[in-house]
Design brief:
Helix content is 43%, strand content 18%. With 340 residues, it is an alpha/beta fold. α2 packs across α12. The radius of gyration is 19 Å and the shape is globular.
Length: 340
């Protein structure tokens, strides 16, 4: 585990400085996936093409904010990874280029539906279910009951022992917010979030951070995508992964070409690689456990079987719209975040 942690730290440092020594960067990629996957994708693409690319890892909300701010002179060329509803929002704001990738015909039905929904501006690259995980060793030490449902997390026994992402910056956390609204109805969802808020120790900028904190025993419960918890468990952390009994939502991670890119042909080339079995295999190779979108790709052995999880019929069109997303975030800030 120390080796994995050290590698993660090196990967994060490398991603932050990767472009410093490059003579000629051919493409700038804004990466919303895990740091280790961002690094693996960069290495694989450069080996495939012989070109040097710049890859910067940020949370989904941070990438969306950057693309908006730079819309008249974009720095990034491709947005790879991160929750699909944010990609849909960027597309609806005319911040993304429409493109018909050759690999689209090999996509699984959920990815094909997402591509159509985006107006041809975003392609699905992976899927994963939302859930939470707890540190089993810490749970035994504290002699607390094991949570199995969303509503269990409001129990006073977990006061100050839960971490969740902040939906303003974390696509994972916005997926949670949208999921709860679809499960319980909006007003009941916000009553639930207010009760949960009393138990939240910290809202993190990144959606994967809560599960890492739970893995290390820094908190008891982390709310995140289940595949992120699987990755931590694979390297030996004592996590128990929970698909909430009421049902849950899911993400479609996406790839999009940023409108106004000056490297359009290379951006298209990157998208084709991201949608290919070769490109998608970089996920499993870097310890990720999402379900890949290409029907010809191999499923990671430890990937959660999303067909066995009780899922909401997630409404990407509604929760990917700028007006709905902004409205829900304003309500969250007014009613929830201000109290923690």
């Amino acid at each position: 585990m120390r080796g994995i942690t050290a590698f993660s730290a090196v990967a994060a440092l490398w991603l932050a400085t990767a472009s410093a020594g490059m003579a000629a960067v051919s493409l700038t990629v804004l990466c919303g996936a895990d740091e280790m996957w961002c690094a693996a994708m960069k290495t694989a693409y450069e080996a495939k093409t012989g070109l040097e690319i710049s890859v910067t890892r940020k949370s989904t909300g941070e990438i969306l904010k950057q693309i908006r701010a730079e819309k008249t002179a974009p720095v990034g060329d491709v947005w790879w990874g991160g929750t699909g509803d944010a990609h849909l929002q960027a597309g609806s704001e005319n911040l993304l280029e429409a493109y018909q990738p050759a690999h689209e015909r090999d996509m699984l039905p959920w990815a094909q539906n997402f591509f159509v929904m985006s107006g041809g501006r975003s392609a699905g690259i992976y899927a994963g279910a939302l859930g939470f995980a707890y540190n089993a060793a810490l749970l035994r030490e504290l002699k607390l009951p094991a949570p199995t449902c969303w509503k269990d997390l409001t129990d006073i026994a977990y006061r100050g022992r839960i971490q969740s992402g902040n939906p303003n910056s974390s696509g994972t956390a916005f997926t949670m917010l949208a999921t709860l609204v679809q499960l319980f109805g909006e007003d009941e969802a916000f009553r639930y979030l207010a009760a949960l808020n009393r138990n939240i120790e910290r809202y993190t900028p990144s959606g994967a951070a809560p599960i890492r904190a739970a893995a290390r025993g820094e908190t008891l419960i982390g709310i995140s995508f289940m595949h992120d918890a699987v990755t931590q468990r694979q390297v030996g952390f004592p996590l128990v992964i929970v698909a909430p009994c009421e049902g849950t939502g899911y993400e479609i991670g996406a790839v999009s070409i940023i409108k106004g890119t000056r490297n359009i042909e290379e951006a298209k080339r990157f998208v084709e690689f991201a949608l290919s079995p070769e490109g998608q295999s970089t996920g499993a190779a870097s310890g990720q456990n999402q379900v890949p979108s290409n029907a010809k790709s191999s499923l990671p052995v430890a990937a959660p079987d999303i067909s066995m999880i009780k899922m909401v019929d997630y409404d990407f069109a509604t929760f990917g719209s700028p007006d709905e997303r902004s409205r829900l975030l304003r309500r969250f800030d007014a009613e929830i975040a201000a109290t923690n």
